[in-house]
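[#protein-structures] MJ: dropping Helix-turn-helix domain containing protein here for a structure pass
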Amino acid sequence: MAGRPREFDRDLALERARDAFWARGYEGISMSDLVAALGVASARIYAAFGSKEALFREAVELYETGEGAFAAHALAEEPTARAAIERMLREAVLLYTRSGRPQGCMVVSAATNCTAGNDGVITWLSEHRRARTQSIIERLRIAQQGGELRPEVDVVALGDCYATLLHGLSVQARDGVGAARLLALIAPALAALESARSVP
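AK: finished. structure tokens for Helix-turn-helix domain containing protein:
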């Protein structure tokens, strides 16, 4: 008598899908790749998640509420904008360069370019990146309203600067630049914020 089929673990399958998309990107992963990565038949994947795109979107959401939530936590939890930006950049480097794990940021690298049929995926991820940029700007605006930054400081430009750096760290990490080198750039990067601070 044949043994019972292994029970499908949806959470584990989603974690494996996240890592596959994170490492190879949306179009770099085929359905057969997902079957191999998740260890289940394509019919079960479709039954559990609906489609490859739906699985990808759910995998990104898992990333953003898990490992990828570091920026949101830093911006919300640190008492000053400077501490928040420094922590955000430092934790980005440590996440993006972990040994044995996908390199870089999933939201930055998973779908920069896709065929026309996947424009929806590109647009959806770009909205996520713009939302992160806006969250940095809002944190700096709060700092300005609280007197940490001078009134004349252009917080939009400053926020764009740090968002660009955050996204650039992902590219550098995927290109193999090591953690020590990336961590070393944080101090000079903070000089712009230091010059924007109000004199005590």
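MJ: nice. The chain has two domains: 10-55, 66-196.
AK: one more thing. DSSP finds twelve helices and no strands in the chain.
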